């Protein structure tokens, strides 16, 4: 049994959440998702359980359970043979049969053991990482964003793996496919209330319950504010009238007003984006041809105001094609003369120098734009302004790059796996921005929820 009691986590003198409780055992076969905005404390929570993070208050006890942790980041020696790596994980040579069993479970041919890691796709590397964990014979699995950088075939594999795992799983993910099809309980970190809210069911049940909770909060707040206004008006009109001036009724009304003020201050409505995404305007003019090339024997055409998805398995050349299109656009003098502005959101969010976020935005002249302040609030970056870029999570860095992209207001946008590391709330903001603006969009994504709402005009299947 894994037991977490009154877990409280502080980062840089800021409380992320407090008094979290969880009981989890392998026999119940629970499939739990941990949700929250980028930087809300999800990875800190699971690292507290695994012993990799110690800056917390509370109690964590593990009895009669073997817990394995699938981390976000990993490094393989590209020159090492897969078989050599896996054999090094065995305690005894005669246990090689375990490797054979695991390769079969992961639907990997034994020939893969003769390859080096440099020869593997991202999906194959993910499976080897899973193999390493399965060799530990875990009863509880903790998975931290396992589908980043994976193609659809590998995501589908992960879905089946989670469903069939004969134990309990604690999953951190922003992938709605897994949240809909694999999960039966959800905990959401709410940094506003410093609490972790529980929801029974999958993604759709979570959103329905969450929406009802927000509506109920708004209704209660409106009613309390109405009562407060009525008492304030009565006191203004009657408090100094001789009939009431020294009566106990005035004192009672003032006490009721103080009580209402406390109740109102205790209501903190969740301020996240609505999941109801508006449809894109399909009446936009799409006649002008902006780009044309033959790639892998396919005729690639990009037209003005057209939304194009580049599809295909990992390693087929999607990112390469996207970068080639970007280079062609940025070197096309005719397009630039016509006022076209081209921007790309890359898979990996990196920065040339390390400094505090506010200084970074200032040095890039972003704080001179009024729109930037709206985006800072919308993308929940205000609390990070005094943080160094090197201290931020992958999702927080991606949100900064997203802010730069939207603030620059390009009319040609290239997106390479834009939802990797990006929380659900920011994904919705990005989809809304694309659907509500007159843009030419070329993107690579394996996220079904993303391209479901984007509404493609054209697809390039490599």
Alpha-beta content class: alpha/beta
Largest sheet: spatial strand order: 5-6-7-3-8-9
| Main sheet specs | 6 strands, mixed
What portion of residues is helical? Answer: 25-40%
Gross morphology: globular
Could you give the distance between the termini? 47 Å
Estimated share of beta-strand residues: 15-25%
On the 0 to 100 scale, the average pLDDT is: 87
Number of strands: 16
Radius of gyration: 26 Å
**Stretches where pLDDT falls below 50 for ≥5 residues?**
none
Number of helices: 16
Written overview of the protein:
It is a single chain. The chain has helices at residues 42-50, 82-87, 96-105, 122-134, 152-164, 176-181, 203-238, 242-245, 248-266, 318-330, 333-337, 357-363, 370-378, 394-408, 424-435, 448-454; strands at 2-11, 14-24, 31-35, 56-62, 67-70, 140-144, 168-172, 185-190, 195-200, 289-295, 298-303, 307-311, 342-345, 412-416, 440-444, 458-461. It is of the alpha/beta class and 462 residues long. The protein has a six-stranded mixed beta sheet, sandwiched between helices. α7 (203-238) packs antiparallel against α9 (248-266) and α13 (370-378) runs antiparallel to α14 (394-408). The two termini are 47 Å apart. The mean pLDDT is 87.
